[in-house]
């Protein structure tokens, strides 16, 4: 149970039994704004596309670039595809029927 204190700024105190633990987190004074509606699939696809462009640039540069950057791009594309798969399993992707 969080009980507000009257001394100083509004800081909650948690009381458990005979002990009380002070928290340094102030209680909110106004409501949080509603969450934004974001098309996360579009954001992930844009990230995959940017990493694909970076992969093409790295491959065109050839030996002038460290091999690590090639694998970084490949890993980022793979993680993006994996993220899309997870989003599909969770039902976050729109179904096209």
Automatic annotation (TrEMBL):
The chain crosses the membrane at residues 43-62, 68-87. It holds the Pfam family DUF2530. Keywords: Membrane, Transmembrane, Transmembrane helix. This is DUF2530 domain-containing protein. The lineage of its organism: Bacteria, Bacillati, Actinomycetota, Actinomycetes, Geodermatophilales.
């Amino acid at each position: 149970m969080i009980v507000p204190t009257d001394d100083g700024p509004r800081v909650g105190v948690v009381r458990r039994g005979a002990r009380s633990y002070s928290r340094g987190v102030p209680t909110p004074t106004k409501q949080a704004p509603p969450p934004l509606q974001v098309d996360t699939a579009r954001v992930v696809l844009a990230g995959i596309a940017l990493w694909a462009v970076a992969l093409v640039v790295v491959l065109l540069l050839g030996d002038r670039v460290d091999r690590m950057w090639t694998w970084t791009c490949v890993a980022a594309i793979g993680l993006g595809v994996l993220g899309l798969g997870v989003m599909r399993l969770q039902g976050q992707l729109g179904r096209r029927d």
